[in-house]
Amino acid sequence: MSTKEFYELHQLNIELKRKTGFNPYYVNVQSGLNDSIIIDGKEFINLAANNYLGIANDIRIKEATINAINKYGLSLCATPIALGGTDLYKSLSQKLSDFVGLESSIIYPSCYQANNGLFPAIADKNDVIIIDQFSHSSLIEGARTVGCKIRPFLHNNLDSLEKNLKNSLKHKQVFVVTESVFSTEGSIAPFAEIVELCKIFDAIPVIDDSHGIGVIGKNGKGILEHSGIKDYQGIYTASLGKSIANSGGMISGKKTLIDYLKYYSPHLVYSTSIAPSILAGIEKAICIIEEEFEVLGNKMWKYRNKLRDALIEFGYGVRSSSAPITSIVTGPSVDTLLFAKELYNRNVLATPFIYPSVPENQGVIRLIAGANLEEKTIDRALHIFKEIKESQG
Ligand SMILES: Cc1ncc(COP(=O)(O)O)c(C=O)c1O
Predict the structure, then answer these.
(1) Which of 38, 71, 147, 180 fits 30 for a cystine, CB–CB 3.0-4.6 Å?
(2) Total domains, the chain
(3) Is 208 in the pocket of ligand 1 (CB under 6 A)?
């Protein structure tokens, strides 16, 4: 291939933009996540962030972060294996383990890295990874790097999982991988039952709780609390950039395995350590969740119920959801973007999911109303949704 052909091949297909006159991605945000956000100088209602508990602009987290910058500077400028970690890392990894109820944890710069870096360290080509068909790209891509058999099971379908487990008996090790809250529509994995099946077939469960931690469970402690699972013997991962309102990704589980990953997970070992200031922010966020989950969580659920009920009343098709996520069914990519454009033109930011993020013609507009929003903002958003529906006849 010539250089010219290479660059021609590797450029965006702007067909959708041409058809819709709109590109909803990579907007230019000029403020923090307050009751409104500023995009290109204009105030928007933000229903696009995973700021479930609304603490992404919390003054206490900002102060903790700034104090840590003053003490530790901006970066350790080294990989964890080269320089080690700060005392903040040590105390936070213990705090995170205690929060989710597991023995030990490590913290990566992102959960994408954590999920990607997990499988090459724990699996080889003689194993099999059985994975929910709707799992996040980070899990699928991580599994692919192993070169082992990957068997998708039907979304949240225990019969399909069991069938796959029965077909996998001859493999050296079997892993069962899923998410807790599936963020496109808000379904929740029947994880207690999945763990039971894993016990029967001697498989290792791997759960990505990125949209569950700080969101589900009586005290916001995520999928293990939500499912009433005690003494979990599997592997747990979660993003710290959603309800925890910072960035980073954790892997938790048995101490022996976590100690092993510290040396054998390349995405941790060979990547500059997560900044100490971020660790301080995560630590403060966990403290706030421990103390204030009841109030913040109630607000988050109240907004979700209000949004969902009103949208159904206005005549929108809304996916059934068990999480504080409301997704409007929009179908084809063009229709999805056109609806997102209607919202954007009225200063509402929402997340359009189109192919290939979702199957062809199964586009949705996802709405997450964080607890940082005021109730009158939710009312204003609903008024706009009503107006759009009425304008469509
Ligand atoms: C289910 C799931 N897992 C992992 C990730 C990646 O997390 P991070 O943003 O921390 O890299 C995401 C983020 O989009 C996610 O939704």
Answers:
(1) 38
(2) 2
(3) yes
pTM of the model: 0.96
- Extended beta strands in the chain, E state: 37-39, 42-46, 104-108, 128-132, 149-153, 174-179, 181-182, 187-188, 204-208, 235-239, 249-253, 326-331, 348-349, 351-353, 363-367
The best mutation among 51, 112, 215, 216 to test binding of ligand 1, ranked by most ligand atoms within 8 Å of the C-beta, falls on: 112
Q: What are the tens digits of pLDDT across the range 43-66?
A: 999 999 999 999 999 999 999 999
Residue 65 lies in a domain: no
Residue 85 lies in a domain: yes
pLDDT value for 76:
96
Domain span including residue 373 = 3-57+292-391
Distance (Å) from CA 250 to ligand 1 centroid: 11
List, for residues 3-24, the tens digit of each pLDDT value: 999 999 998 878 888 899 999 8
191 and 117 share one domain: yes
Please report whether residue 283 resides in a domain.
Answer: no
What is the rounded distance in angstroms from the CA atom of residue 208 to the CA atom of residue 196? 17
Q: Note whether 261 and 339 are same-domain residues.
A: no
Whether 112 lines ligand 1, by a CB cut-off of 6 Å, is yes
